[in-house]
Specification:
The protein contains 14 helices and 49 strands. Helices cover 20% and strands 31% of the residues. Strand 42 and strand 43 form a beta hairpin. The strands form ten sheets. It has a nine-stranded antiparallel sheet, with no helix packed on it. Strands 2-3-4-5-20-17-16-14 form an eight-stranded antiparallel sheet. Strands 30-27-23-22-21-31 form a six-stranded parallel sheet.
């Protein structure tokens, strides 16, 4: 990279330096990589070979074939690890739980193979290396072919690739793989005769992408299969580049590494519970994070940000966080603030905090490779950068010019990086936005990242190239950032949003869908992308409202905003060459409608926060596909323009220009129209109206939907034809690690009566001045609170504390079922 350094010294303008870097860097990258590409050759495919011996182990079994070995290891009764050897042993960055309770398994030899069983799961090993997975009912959930090893040879290394295949049923649907610009069902392809291929390689989409772009920023080698016999989840603990495709066979091809994967079966909630038990549950996020976030690449000075904040005040628009893009950085250098454009950043942060607004700033991993840059000199002295074969730091062009990249697979590098956050935290920065952390670099052609074979990483001292470390990069940067925030501000919960990551990112950060195009197609794509992230264990995500690059019409912006108000991460962001994108910049009626939807989101804060607490306990995503509520209905398996928020709310997107209605197939049960309480029967398709002021929003019958207004907890009660239902509300201080409480509510009905029982637990004081009970679908005639009759206030009852409330009256939507 010495040629690049000399060229950069002779240039004066940043843009020219970036252009030259994006031209010369790929030339040098291709030169370094040429020896690996030209000398590679494919040998014949090697299969398992004949079985030589099989033996039982404490939690499974080992099988020795002629060419490869197989280990089956039960972690729990419904979670089994499969490992085919040989191969580079994975470093378990994505694994959180490594100690599992004792478990007995049964090992049995049969005529054509062996079975290894737990109380819930049976693995059948064929003499040819094929595997079958059955549940406790004897139903076969998955059939795998013997793995194959096409081998690649080069003078420097012998890469033993793996091809792993399983049979797919005709009706089987596939979900997951992290972030994808694809339909919800990943088996869907525009060409029935051609399987769509999904690449496992975190990738900077280059400022704009649309449906069909692959790969994207956050790839996770995990997928869920759903068919008539049940559902299962497969997670490959292999970070090397891979290709996945789904046609008659599910095929996964890894460039190197051991073939280690995990299998679990059960209901959809059970799959996510077990997977996140393995890879980690998301910590409880600060409550303010569920408010509205405003961002723009283009708040170039303090005055621009202050003007935006003033606009929110003037127009009475709620906002909880303002994000600063690369404009805030001093010559785009990491962990800096431009002293000319943001001379009073501490005062700005303090003023925003007084208004209840948090200040979030961007962090890019590239460290400007200049002797004048103290951070670079410090990193070089501590030997914490990714290296080339020469031993010198790998250098590539990003925003700050030529940059070196911390090797986050080195514990010393993670520790060194963590120490850098303290400066910004002391200035009043509340949270951090990790960007360009695939890592992305500027190129005119080829892969926009570090040379895959020629970049060397520590990998905890074992050593390895960038092919193995690349997909870990964003995950490990998020870990370093999370540890920094937890250490320097132990009284606060860390908040990080990361563009890239891998399995386990949920332990440290939120994410968003990156630079999606500004179009109706981009709006539609947002929903399946967020849904598949959730099914991949990433519960907190959202999109750039209106798309990243482009100028949405008022209608497109509004429809995008409306669905975003029901996603975990609600943020407007856009490129610097777009028109201002604030609610008031679109005029009326957009401004008034946005205001009402944001007010609704903030009223729903108890619901969002309770879902967040539940996610920390179970790993369930907040945003869920419709079949989460009804997996027995195949009509729901491919719906990707609607979603559930928790169990109570069903949100239907309006993603076509000019549309004022839409059809939707409903999950089983009954559903109330949120806007007018009309009752809809589930299990069938209905047509719903959608004026510009509203989108179809339904509430599941039986729900107790918590909301808040004027420091009052409002419980909206939606009776169902079922006799019993329950809900809970989690509360604490909203940040930190102090006391908490859980309020459980049980709703029962009997003939012409409705009863609500309240059970309280926890030491945190009830945070509301009172409770309002709002009845839907029931007209009360008499009311008793803890056995004493009180004045009938109609549909709403204001009350402070109670153990039980009983109403006698008439159900207006259901005929009573005893």
């Amino acid at each position: 990279m010495d040629i690049l350094n000399e060229a950069f010294l002779n240039l004066r303008t940043i843009k020219l330096r970036r252009f030259l870097g994006s031209l010369l860097y790929p030339l040098q990258r291709d030169l370094l990589e040429r020896q690996f590409r030209k000398s590679q050759s494919l040998e014949a495919v090697e299969e398992t070979g004949e079985i030589q011996r099989a033996e039982a182990t404490k939690r499974g079994g080992q099988f020795h074939f002629k060419h490869i070995e197989l280990e089956i290891y039960f972690l729990s009764a419904d979670l089994v690890r499969i490992e085919w050897k040989p191969g580079i042993y994975p470093i378990s960055y994505g694994i959180s739980r490594k100690d599992w309770p004792e478990l007995e398994t049964t090992f049995q030899e049969m005529e054509e193979g062996w079975t290894i069983s737990s109380p819930h799961l049976k693995v059948i090993v064929g003499v040819d290396g094929s595997l079958k997975f059955q549940n406790s009912l004897g139903q076969t959930l998955r059939e795998e072919l013997p793995p194959q090893r096409p081998t690649k040879l080069s003078p420097q290394t012998k890469d033993e690739t793996w091809r792993h295949q399983a049979k797919l049923r005709p009706e089987e649907h596939i979900y997951g793989l992290g972030e994808r610009a694809a339909p919800l069902n990943l088996r869907t392809s525009g060409d029935k005769n051609k399987a769509r291929t999904y690449r496992m390689w975190n990738y900077d989409a280059g400022g704009i992408y649309g449906p069909g772009t692959d790969p994207l920023y956050l790839c996770i080698p995990l997928y869920l299969g759903l068919h008539e016999e049940g559902s299962y989840l497969i997670f490959y603990e292999n970070s090397f580049p891979a290709n996945f495709s789904f046609q008659e066979l599910a095929t996964a091809e890894f460039e190197s590494g051991a073939l280690r994967y995990y299998f679990t079966a059960g209901t959809l909630p059970q799959l996510l519970e077990r997977y996140t038990e393995l890879t980690g549950r998301p910590p409880l996020t600060p409550r303010w994070a569920f408010g509205y976030h405003q961002s723009r690449w283009g708040y170039e000075k303090e005055a621009a940000l202050r003007e935006a904040v003033k606009g929110f005040e003037t127009h009475d628009i709620l906002v909880s966080a303002m994000h600063l893009d690369i404009d805030v950085l001093d010559n785009f250098r990491a962990f800096t603030i431009d002293p000319d454009r943001f001379p009073h950043i501490s005062k700005l942060a303090e003023e925003l905090a007084a208004k209840g607004i948090r200040l979030i700033t961007i962090i890019n991993p590239g460290v400007q490779a200049s002797r004048k840059n103290k951070l670079f000199e410090e990193g070089r002295a501590q030997d914490v950068f990714c290296k080339l074969p020469s031993g010198k730091p790998a250098i590539a062009p990003v925003w700050a010019g030529l940059c070196a990249f911390p090797d986050f697979t080195n514990p010393q590098a993670r520790h060194w990086w963590s120490r850098q956050y303290e400066y910004l935290l002391d200035l009043g920065i509340t949270g951090f936005w990790h960007d360009m952390n695939e890592p992305g670099v500027f190129v005119l052609w080829g892969d926009p990242s570090l040379p895959p074979h020629s970049t060397w990483h520590s990998l905890e001292g074992r050593g390895g190239d960038h092919r193995e470390a690349h997909n870990f990069y964003g995950l490990l940067q998020a870990e370093a950032g999370y540890e920094a925030l937890a250490e320097y501000q132990p009284e606060r919960r860390p908040f990080i949003v990361s563009r890239s990551g891998w399995a386990g990112l949920q332990r440290y950060a939120w994410t968003w869908t990156g630079d999606i195009e500004t179009s109706w197609e981009g709006l539609r794509q947002t929903i399946p992308t967020v849904l598949n992230l959730g099914l991949s264990g990433i519960p907190y995500s959202g999109s750039d409202i209106g798309g990243f690059k482009g100028n949405p019409s008022a209608e497109l912006y509004l429809r995008w905003f409306q669905i975003s108000c029901f996603m975990a991460f609600c943020r407007t962001h856009s490129a610097n060459n777009t028109k201002p994108r604030t609610p008031w910049s679109f005029g009326e009626p957009t401004l008034s409608i946005v205001r009402k939807f944001l007010q609704l989101r903030y009223r729903l804060m108890p619901y969002f926060y309770t879902l967040a607490w539940e996610a920390s306990q179970t790993g369930h995503p907040l945003v869920r596909p419709l079949f989460w509520a009804d997996t027995d209905n195949p009509q729901l398996w491919s719906i990707d323009d609607a979603f559930l928020l928790g169990d109570a709310l069903l949100v239907c997107a309006i993603a076509e220009k000019g549309a004022t209605s839409r059809a939707i197939a409903l999950p089983k049960g009954h559903w109330y129209n949120f806007w007018d309480d009309a009752l809809l029967e589930g299990g069938k398709q209905v047509n719903l109206k959608a004026s510009l002021e509203q989108i179809p929003l339904l509430v599941k019958a039986g729900s107790i939907l918590p909301m808040e207004e004027d420091n009052q907890l409002i419980l909206h009660l939606y009776p169902s034809a079922l006799l019993n239902s329950e809900s809970q509300v989690y509360s604490d201080a909203g940040d930190g690690y102090g006391e908490s409480r859980l309020d459980r509510f049980y709703l029962t009905q009997n003939q012409d009566t409705l009863e609500l029982t309240w059970k309280q637990q926890g030491d945190y004081a009830f945070p509301y001045a009172g409770v309002k009970l709002h009845l839907h679908g029931f007209e009360p005639q008499q009311v008793w609170v803890d056995g004493s009759e009180v004045f009938n206030q109609g549909q709403c009852l204001d009350i402070e504390q109670f153990e039980q409330v009983r109403w006698q009256g008439m159900f207006t939507n259901f005929e009573h079922r005893s």
